[in-house]
Specification:
With 790 residues, the chain is of the alpha+beta class. α12 packs antiparallel against α13. 49% of the residues are buried. It is a single-pass type II membrane protein. One of its GO terms (cellular component) is endoplasmic reticulum membrane. Its main location: endoplasmic reticulum. Belongs to the glycosyl hydrolase 63 family.
Length: 790
């Protein structure tokens, strides 16, 4: 019934779908009236393909899709690289959105070695009869070489494809656009008859090719193959000007020079022969388009100032980084559709590790921001809560819909897959070993962090009555799903002791990892107990559960006691998890003055080289973990981000001497303090900056991460304004840390053009994924001093 790879997975019985792939039995939040009508139509078209350098699609499963490719600089072998999918490499000097409003406008700059390719996108409903309106793109090619006057040839490749396989019509004068500007046309059920036109005063040379199957993932290879055939035959770098019968994708080569501008307009809902198409094309190209883009730019600046109040506070370089943070966050929002692969119920650990034994989740759509366009262009559950802390301050309705989309992915047990790999494009950028999701593993419930923040925004009167009512209406409908989600955590991740929790999914059998990972925690290789058992207690998860219970309790207080089934007494749960004495009994180390995990642990574990005989009989040398001491149940002596979770969630009373010890730890240069931000793992840890195996570099074992720095900074701000003996100390550390974080991110952006995934613990240089404007974009909230309240 359900298939995965070559293995057929039988359901529980012939007529019953396995629980793990059974949707939660409640109305979908994406179907709420607030997300229909004008809201749905104004968000229909967008730059919802974050995985490519520039791409457009509609929020529908089988959309009309458009995108850009271009030939980059020559490589060592004399061939040109075809730019299409975003890459985490130095081939481009930098790329990213400078402005984006999340709805109908964005402007991006892509830096080749000697050229800037500026891409702009804008929508217009004026005069359009098609659903979602018309849209236009502008490609502005700017010299950046030693001689800015010298022009060079540039080959752009703009494509239009119908994912539903509908046949496209080629414009009759594509090879000579003097008489007609029409590139392609077609008809669809959603937008009616449509046309796409090209206008440019540069009079570019144009060529084309067409393919029957809209295979976007392999499109750049197909185009390069087409180019090479013609180049080998005639010595010219141009497409073949041929197409398959019934082509559903056309690629248009636009050969022009730098210092030129190309406008491409899409109009839909065309009726009859005597339509106003030419007039509509005219308003979306040339000087009218320039005027429209300038209006959108001015509006973006005004809204940025209104939302974040930065203009008077900071210098121009810092302001530019702030705009890039929100622009890239909104420009990185994507629409995905497909089926997640879920690990099938198994009986043995060996079967559980098989990558091709899986069930298919139901077909689902997901509207979400992404952490990084080149490295992580897909939905990540725990990242998304941090993303929405920023997005809701720009447009809370976008946040509500994104949160609703994620909650709609919940199964009947209340579980949500933590990574969403939906569709072929998303799958093409995903390492195979991480595709299949494991239904016993969770991820920090950060969506409740943003919901908590919205509730506190209502308390602080940041919303008018209409907005307040929309948010509360959403929470009323979402409550049953949120309650089930909490209950899933509260049962599946609970520990042996009352009020204790641990992240499931650590591998207790591996001998290839120095410290078995806790991927479900989001902190991956952050060191936990050396020997995973059910006796573990993870202090970070305990604090997440406190936040979740407190959020649920706040929702109930706001909505009132209605006749709804509630699985947990949230007031009592909050009381239990905020019990300071119980927290200290479970997790506090008085000697170190730090909160720690608890588990079966020894420090005497090392990776050693050994000769290993494989299944094929071959002998190889491999790094294998060996334990030289006896593990025992104890607090795990690694100070780092996990140690500060009770501080982050403000469970520590302002007058407690433990608060002073936390402040001392945070500001200690010998442990986590640096001039660039707080280190993920203290220098005193035995696993500080250690590899977890031969190839796995330290990830959360020293490098500086923005999301955790933001949370700690947020609590420093809190403790600096509430009455207590350590207010002044908290204020001093807060100001120093905030200044360090801003200065380092701005410096790196100025030098590289990117906001980075994490930053080096000794030099502050950007590392990991480029264009990581997921939670690293929280630097904007740090600039504006906007923090969540608990």
């Amino acid at each position: 019934m359900m298939t995965g790879g070559s293995h057929k997975i039988a359901p529980d019985d012939e007529f019953q779908i396995p629980r793990v792939i059974t949707p939660f039995p409640a109305p979908k939040l994406s179907h709420l009236p607030m997300f229909q009508g004008d809201h749905k139509e104004r968000l229909y078209w967008g730059t919802y393909r974050p995985q490519v350098y520039f791409g457009i699609r509609a929020r529908t499963p089988q959309s009309l899709v458009a995108g850009l490719m271009w030939l980059g600089d020559e490589k060592d072998d004399g061939k040109h690289a075809m730019r299409h999918f975003c890459e985490n490499s130095e081939d481009l000097k930098s790329f990213g959105w400078k402005e984006h409003n999340g709805i109908d406008f964005g402007r991006q700059e892509l830096f080749e070695q000697d050229m800037i390719l500026e891409t702009s996108f804008v929508k217009s409903k004026e005069g359009s009869l098609g659903y979602g309106g018309d849209w236009s793109v502008r490609f502005n090619l700017i010299n950046k070489g030693l001689n800015d006057e010298a022009k060079r040839t540039v080959h752009l490749f703009f494509y239009i494809a119908d994912e539903g396989g509908n046949v496209l019509n080629l414009g009759k004068d594509v090879l000579d656009l003097e008489e007609s500007s029409l590139l392609a046309s077609g008809s669809r059920a959603d937008v009616g008859k449509w046309q796409m036109h090209l206008k440019s005063e540069a009079h570019p040379e144009t060529h084309y090719c067409g393919f029957k199957k809209p295979d976007i993932v392999n499109l750049s290879d197909a185009v390069q193959k087409n180019l090479s055939v013609h180049e080998n035959k005639y010595g010219r770098l141009q497409l073949s000007d041929t197409s398959d019968d019934s082509s559903s994708i056309y690629v248009f080569q636009i050969s022009t020079t730098t210092q030129s501008t190309i406008d491409i307009a899409f109009v839909s809902g065309i009726r009859g022969e005597t339509s106003d198409v030419e007039q509509r094309i005219g308003t979306l190209t040339g000087s009218p388009l320039s005027t429209l883009l300038e209006e959108k730019h001015i509006a973006f600046d005004a809204k940025f100032k209104e939302c974040f109040h930065l203009s008077e506070k900071v210098d121009s370089e810092t302001l530019m980084v702030g705009k890039a943070a929100i622009g890239n966050m909104l420009g990185g929002i994507g629409y995905f559709y497909g089926q997640s692969k879920i690990q099938a119920p198994t009986s043995t650990p060996q079967q559980a590790k098989s990558e091709d034994k899986f069930l298919l989740y139901w077909p689902a759509e997901l509207y979400t921001a992404v952490p990084s366009r080149p490295n992580f262009p897909r939905g990540f559950l725990w990242d998304e809560g941090f993303h929405q802390l920023l997005v809701w301050r720009w447009d809370f309705r976008i946040t509500l819909e994104i949160v609703g989309n994620w909650l709609d992915l919940m199964n009947i047990d209340g579980w949500i897959p933590r990574e969403q790999v939906l569709g072929d494009e998303a799958l093409s950028k995903m390492p195979k070993e991480y595709v299949v999701q494991i239904p016993s593993n969770g991820n920090p419930p950060t969506l409740l962090l943003v919901i908590h923040d919205l509730i506190n925004g209502i308390r602080a009167e940041k919303f008018n009555k209409e907005e307040r009512d929309e948010i509360l209406s959403f929470l009323d409908q979402a409550f049953v799903r949120l309650d089930a989600w909490f209950q899933w955590f509260n049962t599946s991740q609970k520990g042996k002791e009352m009020g204790s929790y641990f992240w499931h999914g650590r591998d207790s059998l591996t001998n290839r990892l120095l410290n078995p990972q806790s991927l479900s925690s989001g902190l991956d290789d952050y060191p936990r107990a050396s020997h995973p058992t059910d006796d573990e207690r993870h202090v970070d998860l305990r604090c997440w559960m406190y936040l979740a219970a407190d959020c649920m309790n706040s929702i109930i207080e706001f909505l009132g006691e209605k006749d709804r089934p509630v699985t947990v007494d949230y007031r009592l749960t909050v009381k239990l998890l905020s019990d300071f004495n119980l927290l200290n009994q479970m997790h506090y180390d008085h000697d170190l003055g730090a909160y720690l995990d608890f588990g079966n642990h020894t420090e005497d574990v090392r990776l050693v080289w050994k000769e290993v005989t494989g299944e094929d009989g071959r002998v190889s040398r491999e790094l294998v973990r060996e334990t030289f001491g006896n593990p025992e149940l104890r607090l795990v002596p690694h100070i780092g981000y996990v140690s500060f979770f009770p501080f982050m969630f403000r469970i520590i009373p302002p007058a407690s001497s433990i608060l002073e010890k936390q402040l001392d730890l945070i500001s200690n240069r010998s442990i986590v303090w640096s001039d660039y931000g707080l280190l993920s793992l203290g220098k005193t840890s035995s696993l500080y900056m250690t590899y977890n195996n031969e190839h796995e570099a330290p990830y959360w074992r020293g490098p500086i991460w923005m999301n955790m720095n933001y949370m700690i900074l947020s609590s420093l701000h809190h403790y600096s304004i509430v009455d207590g003996p350590y207010m002044a100390k908290a204020r001093t550390i807060y100001e120093q840390l905030r200044s360090n974080l801003i200065r380092n991110v701005v410096r790196n952006y100025d030098e590289t053009g990117y906001i980075w995934e994490h930053y080096d613990q000794t030099k502050g240089t950007g590392e990991g994924a480029r264009a990581f404007t997921g939670w690293s974009a929280l630097i904007l909230l740090i600039m504006s001093e906007e923090y969540p309240l608990f």
